[in-house]
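Field: sequence (string)
Field: structure_tokens (string)

Example rows 1 and 2, in order.
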Amino acid sequence: MKKVLILVFLAVLFIACEKEVTVYINDEPGQISGQVFPANATVMLKQYQMNTTLNCDEDGFFLFEELQPGKYNLEIKADGYGTQLISTEVTANYNQDIGKIYLTDIPYPIRNVSHTQMNNYIRLTVQLYEQIVTDNLDSLITVSPEAEIAFGYSGNTISAELQNFLEDSVTIHFSEAIETFTQRVIDFAYDYEIQFADLEVNNCSISNGYRISCSFTQPLMQESLSNSLITVVPAANYEINFGNTITLNPSGAFQPSTEYVVTFKKEIMSVFNTTLSEDYEMSFETNPLQVVSTNPYHEQYFVEGNRIYFDFSSTIKESTIMDNITIEPASEFSITTSQNN
């Protein structure tokens, strides 16, 4: 009896000395579910050192059960598609439905890849989901056929300029592994292909005086341009200026009320070695011949001198003038002509 009393006394003394007693009770487990497109995907569930992988069913659905509340990461993959990473949190006795997940052919951490064609180079822009180690960009991104590349990196964006690139296609290769700032190595392989379409005439316009200006969808290779690649029918005097825009500046007169056809030959070449798929034609019609002004003007009084000047909208044939001018009352006259610039 004495031993029992001592044990009870010690137990009461121990409890009395404790300031606070915490009791831990396990929460009810939760779930994570979702649907992946395409359906042949695998989903890896990660939390600390624990990894669990499921194959989606034939409709792309997956379900992780009996999960303790907390934060989890999902890594979703499928053959021929990029990896997608999703972070979520499980709460007690609740199904955390991720919803529909669409995989793309761009692997994580690449968000988007785009390019712009410049004069003699291509500007490539790669947007990333997270920052990466950039010490080896020249080995991370390569191209074929080979080209000079100038890299830049800001925030989550890589820029690369392919300089002096004169091919009609290029493939950008991303290496099979990339390291993030969190020292996580992501395995992926991705090729971004650029295939340049045929060169096309973008726009042609005619301004006052029949000045013609034509732009193209790609920068032109200046060395390939010559006057023989442009014809004007009927023949007209033009000075041709070549650049990314071809300009025809008239240097002579045009026949009135005449349709002119300008042809750009398909041999015109861009800096990417692409050409027009066929000859490009444009046409315009000149205005009818008109008297623009006279001196003296019509019905003018008190005319001094014995000269009359007529200014026409276009050059006229001198041989047609004498038989088509009359003066009343009859008077002898002679005709001289001059060309205004």
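Row 2 begins here:
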Amino acid sequence: MHSDMRAPRRLLASLLSLWLAGPAMAQSVNDTKGMAVESDSGATVLPVPDDQAFLRGMAAKAKKDGARAVQEFSAAAATGHAQAEYLLGLMYLRGDGVKTDIKQAVHWFERALSQAHALAATQLGELYEQGNGVPKNSRRAAELYERAALAGFSPAQTRLGALFESGTGVAENPQAALDWYSVAAAQGNWDAQHRLGKLMRDGRTGEIDYTEARHLFEASAKNGNSYAKVSLGDLYETGRGVPRNLNKAGQLYREAAREGEPAGRTRLATLGHPPSESNVALVKYAKPPAKPQSLKAHAVKPAPKPLQSAAAD
């Protein structure tokens, strides 16, 4: 990605984080009141999160002693330690040191969420999106992703963008998808970089920019996304935004295949005969501008609007 485009997108990410900072902190304080107790003098006393128990839990987890980690995280979580609540939820979800129990996982994620824990919101969103241990509810997933996205958590921003792109749980809105992908991509999220590149390549917002798509695919691949190499190879195979170069395409497919990406092997086997969608995406989605536009036009704008009405599942 162009270095001059990273700065404004980072600025947008910072603005989003600041936008929610006040309400999030206020929510955290308000939710903690439910755990308050009265002292002998009648004064309200908030519980003090047990950092020592949490640190003992982290040490046990590092030693792969899951049972001890669960014990220590439980002790810390009982005092309202948000990170301990989240990690305890993860351990119940994964069956790490304790028998898998999705209901317990959801309980602890919700406890952490009440303290504005972005990772807990995202994890809960995934459970609702997949219908894993809870009724499938894409709308609820979108709301949870939005909470974490507004707090600046790039995986949630990416997941929310994906829901807008597909119209799952929310009204389909490629522009909103582009906005959220842009914010996450500015933080170096390789999934967002790849998804944003595909939006630009396919013209989902009516704007095609193969050059920017190539830069985004390169950035995503550099950050560890093997599938981005397949997308990059596709540009070279079809000559979109770059001179057609089957050798370069083959090299990229081969690298992706070596890294375990099945699509790399598939495209390598059909090199020179790209799938039809590589050639029809432009016709399907795009209203090409007279001159390709840069993402600079989208770099700095008001934060994406909070969710309004949404399509039912």
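free_text_note (row 2): Strands lie at 37-38, 44-45.
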